[in-house]
Every structure is written in C-alpha cells, then in structure tokens.
Protein 1
Amino acid sequence: MNLSISKMISEDEIQTRVKALGEELTAKFKGKDLLAICVLKGSIVFYSDLIREIDTDLSCDFLGVSSYHGKTQSSGEVKLTLDLNTPIDGRHVLIVEDIVDTGLTMAYLQKSLLARSPASLSTVTLLHKPDAKKVECEIDYIGFEIPNDFVVGYGLDYQGLYRNLPYIGQVSNLN
Ligand code: 5GP
C-alpha cells in the first residue's frame, strides 16, 4: 500500500515515555497484584513494552474490541470481539489502550469492567486526541497528546497494515 507517512513520534521518544509511564505505574502498584489488560489489536506493541517496565506482580489478559471496521472514522459502535479469560472481581486492573480518539471505546470498556467489581480500575493510553473527544472518560496515564490526525505504527494500523512500524507516523494522503 502506498501511503504517505511522516514521522510524528520517534522510536526513541516512545521508549523514553514508556519507561517513564512504567515508573509511575510501578510506584502506584508496587506490592499489589496487577492484572494488565491488553486491548487488541492496536495495543499489542505498547502493551508488551509497557509491562516490561512495570516492576510488580503482574498478570496478563486480553480483550478484543472493534469500532473502526477498517475505516479511518469511528463507526460510533463498540463491539466486544474477545472477552477476558479471568474474572476480575477484587483485582487491581489496568486497561492498556493504544489511542483514545472519541473516547467511546474507553468509556465502553470502563463501564463494562466496572460492572465486574474490580478492586480498582486504572487506565493508560499511549496516545490521546483531545480534540476528537465525543464522550467523557477519565484516563489516568497518557503517553502523548496528539492532534486530530490519523496515525499508524507502533501497533496502530491502516487496513491491517503498518502495525510493525517502530514509530508513530501521520498519514497525509487518505481519501
Ligand atoms: P475511540 O473509540 O476513542 O474513537 O477509538 C478508539 C480506537 O479507534 C482505537 O483503539 C484505535 O483502534 C482506533 N483509532 C482511533 N484513532 C486512530 C488513529 O489515528 N489511527 C489508527 N490506526 N486507529 C485509530
């Protein structure tokens, strides 16, 4: 595919920020059992880097959600495509997201997981587009705030591609 992609956040900047987020999360969860939830598929790269920077007892689980259906605009409808393997009641839970755009997905995840009575529910996202917000949702940790542009790389795709770019790139020639 021939997209025109310009670098927005370099590999080094991402790694530095991920380390800092890991330190903050370690400070918060040290001495506790943490269940870190990877929101598939976009968070896979951020998640695998971030969990290695969190120094406490940590288990992993995975949730699948879809809201974009391969397009660049959110359909406004969030669907659970894969549920967790583990019950979360009484556990300290951290939702790890790649990007918060309209906030619909994060709001949906917070509501669904809070209904399962975790001991605590925290949220971290690598990227946040404050200008795209449609619904209120609280995010505890944010890697980078970015403009309302479509981005790919470091786990984020366009039609299934570009997840393997080591940096975040802005796409300039989408229809
Ligand atoms: P929201 O529900 O906040 O509108 O969107 C969340 C989901 O939309 C993200 O988890 C991600 O999959 C997708 N998304 C939002 N903005 C972008 C973007 O700029 N690039 C890519 N590749 N996906 C995005």
Note: The longest strand covers residues 57-66.
Protein 2
Amino acid sequence: MCGIIGCVGRGTETLDTLVEGLGTLEYRGYDSAGVALVDDDGLSVVKAAGELSALRERLADRALSGTVGIGHTRWSTHGPPTDENAHPHLDCTGRVAVVHNGIIENYQSLRADLEATGHEFRSDTDTEVIPHLVGKRLADGDTPSAAFRGAVDRLEGSYAVAAVVAGSRRLFAARNDSPLVVGLGGDEPTLDTADPAFIASDVPAFREHTPHVVYLDDGEFVTLDDGITVTDETGTRVRKAVETVGWDPEQTGKSGYEHFMLKEIHEQPRALRQCLSGRVDELRGAADLDLDLTAPTGVQFVAAGTSYHASLYGAELFRRAGVPAQAFLASEYATSPPPLGADLVVGVTQSGETADTLSALREAARRGAETLAVTNTVSSTADRECDHTLLIRSGPEIGVAATKTFAGQLAALNLLTLGTVEDVRSRRAVLPALRDLPGDVQAVLDSSVASTVAETYRDAAAYFFIGRGLQFPVALEGALKLKEISYEHAEGFAAGELKHGPLALVQADTPVFAVVLGDGERAHKTVGNIKEVEARDAPVVAVTDGQSDAHLYADHVLEVPETHPRVAALLANVQLQLVAYYIADGLGRPIDKPRNLAKSVTVE
Ligand code: M6R
C-alpha cells in the first residue's frame, strides 16, 4: 500500500532523506513515487510512474534544494499508475502539496463542489481533492495550519495524509484508519525538542535517523516544526508518549541474502526462539503468556491471506481442546450477520494494520466480544485497539510474502491454546516439541532439497497442494506463497476434496504437493489421495516426517524431523516456503515485490 515519508530539519539532506526513506517503504508495494520540497523560492514537485529508479532518474536532472519535504510511494486505487496520478498532488496555485494513503470515500462530491467553483483537476485520484480544499481555505485567508485542519475535517474515509505549503517551514499531517508514525531526532528527544522530525507510514522509513517514535491515533493532527505538536479532533493539544523501537536498521537489511524473503525464511529459528522465549515452562507443564485472559467458551478468528491460514490452524487447535471455534475471512465478517456466539474474537495480523481485519475486530467489539490481537507489530492499530495483545515477536518482515511471521503466528497460537484451554496432558506432550521447534526448523533449512524439487517442476502447468486437519492450512499457505511470488497457478485443497472436483485438473504436468505428517487416520487417508493422484499420472511431492507410507508413493520427498504432528505442520511449511522461493527465483520473478501486491493492505 502507499507509503509516506516527510521530514523537517534535515537541511541540505532533505531530498536524500526522503528518497532513502521511500526506498525502505518499497516493501509495502507501489507503482509510482514522488517528492515535494519547500524552499525559499516556493514548492517543487517531482514524480514518476514505475519504480523508484524512475523517480531517481528524474531527480538527477533537477537541483532541488528544499529543507521541508514529503515523499510518497503510490499503490493505485483510483486511476492507473501514471505520472499524473502519482503523489504529491498540488492545488490550482501550486502552493500546496499533499501525499495520502487510504481512500477518501466522499471525494466525488468534494470534487464536484470544487470544480463548480473553478478548481481544475489534473488526476483521477481521490487524493487530489485534499490540496484543492487546503488551497481554497488559504485563498479565503486561513493560516496553513487552519487550512489543513479545515480540509481534513471535510474528508470521509481512511487517510494518513501529509501536506507542505509554499512559504511555510512546517509539515502538517493527520490520520484516520491508516497508519502514521512520527520520528523524533536528536539525543533523548521530547516533543518540544525533537530536531529533526519525521513522519512516515512505518518506522523503517526513518529508523536510520532515530529509534524514538510517537504513534498517532485516529483523529489526531500533527505539526512538525521546531518540535512536534499533536492535537486531537477538537484542536486540544495531546501529550503523546515517546517510545523507543527495539530493532536496529541492520535488521531491515538483506544481510547477504539475495532476497528479503530468503533471509526471512532463514531467520525462522531465531524468530521462533524469540516468540517462545520465557513462555514455555516445561517443568510446570505450562505456557506463560502474561495475558489477563480467562479461558474462552467460544472463539472466532478474523484475518486475511496468510494470517487467515494461521487462523484456520488456531481454530482447529481450540476445537481439539473442546472449545467451539471458527475462522473467518475478515473481509466477509463485518458485513455478514453475526455467526454463533463467541466470547473471544482473535484478530491475527502480522502488520496490525490490515483494514479488513481492523474492521472485523471493531465489529466484534461492537457485538460485545472481548478482542485479542495476535500481531508482530507493537503499537499497531490492532495492538492499540484490542483488549489484549499476543505479540509473535518475529522481528521486522520486509518481503511481501509472509514467511517468518506465519511461523510466529502458528507458534503463538499453540501457546494461546496451551495457556488458556488445554489440559496438562496435552501441554506436557506439546511443550517439548515447541522447545525443539527452532532447532528442527534449522535442520529443515540445512537439509532441504526444495531447490532440486523446484528445478524439476519449474515449468509445470499448475501446482496443487493437499493436506488434512492441521495440514490443510499448510496446503493453502503453500499454494498462496507459490502463486503470489511466482505468478504461477497454484491451489490448495483439503485432501479429501480433491476427488470432488479439482481432480479433473490433475494430470502429468500438474505436480501435487501432499503434506502428510504422523501415522494417524488422517495420514492414511491422505496417502489414499496420493494414490488417486498417481493413477492420473501426476507427479507427487510428499512433505512428510516418514511416519506414514507417503514416501513410498511419492516421486520426491521433502522430509521433516519427527515431532508432535501439530508442530510438524510448521516444519512442512518451511519446505513449501523454500519450494515457492526457488520456483519464483528460477522464473526470475521480483520476489520481494510481487506485482499488484502490498505488504500492508490498509484499504478495504
Ligand atoms: O498484516 P496481515 O497479517 O494482516 O496481512 C494479511 C495479508 O494481507 C497477508 O498475509 C498477505 O496474504 C501476504 N502477502 C501473504 O504472504
């Protein structure tokens, strides 16, 4: 989704700060970029469709010297990715520049009103109404600060918005339903002393310059000047807490890996250690979550994409512990009639900013449920709005494809059920497997033959993934990972469903990845499905711990260490992550920034 960076107080380094900041926001997904700077002579804007390199090329021909600036990476919603639709957008006079993330729902009526009074628009975007509204108020005699506030007051929808005005050394910003964070430069800065000061959609944009941050809440406005002024909807000053982010900029580099995704796959042992640290007490047979949560009698999960797959897994864990639980696609939840009651609604979201998931959580709260965020992002909207938070502690994830955070979600959901509803017998069975999990993931990473399998099947017509029980979400996730980064057709199915339709698609050039763990009834049934696939000449890749006969019928085997079957699901997933990575890499895809996708999906 769109990324915003802005800064005041960087002097001659303003432009570099903006462009480097945009580079760190690339992971969010974008299709055009631009910057606006204010100097003594006025306001300059440079923007370009395409990658950041196109903007850099354009900037090379221009000598921009401003010391207050904003920058933006745009992920198209209203209008195609063109130079005209790229942000920043200007008002008619060219005095006001605005960048925006989100969707202005009433932009058509605002635009019609403005056009009726002579305003001329240059883009198809919803955003362009904002600089025109600011410009109109300036023309009516408002100060820049009052003009910005007055313009934002007219907006309906979601926005993180930042503006600069020619002749002013100030930067104005506001948020509603879209993330926006303020960075405070200087030694141990306060709101009054911060210099330089930054605004961004996400901390990496300015982390190189400062670890000190203020997270804005919905309805808040901020002015960056000599210091930082935050006000609420009524204009009353708010004293915000200054927080310090725990990770360093090095963590957001590639550390020698070709792609962030590969680095993050390999970071899983460490990420899982962090997730489990201090939470697994084998001696007492307990999971310590530090959550003030009573055992729920019914649970609903709301999530999107990979996090929805984690939710399917979590719901199954609760059901196995005897607690009714269901997983819902967040985008369907809020607008559907309430399902059967639940006293706990769990939002699983690595970013904590997914608009669909936030809407579903808000709807759940309105319906009277207690809410829990399972997230990777401290102080994200989900963290701040939910009654409880369980952090997965995976560290920053930059690749658009979720990898280590999915592992963290599955581990955290194990801790959640163990810590709230599971009996001591199952705790004693699962806790040792969780303790060994980071080492087992490392063993998979060290021995995997996924790159050979990927090479063998790189030119397949389509890819199918099957699994039962807790292996079903792993099959769905294997398919999602492959399709999003390779652009190849991939589908995941509950293994038993294959014969109810998808089998019609299975043939010699459609490999089937079968996740078969343990030696129980489900594993035996999946082996039966493998035989059905083989009878149709389709190659089979078994992802297995060797306990069943799956390996006997498979063309290739991706092995995982033997452990508790529900924990083994995480190991099988690592093999499928590697398969997806190597197929996409072999096809030369832009793995960390797949087309049309965004890391943080902040619109519904
Ligand atoms: O930040 P969230 O976990 O809420 O994100 C949800 C999905 O957008 C996300 O998992 C998406 O499906 C990933 N690109 C999958 O790799």
Note: The longest helix spans residues 424-447.
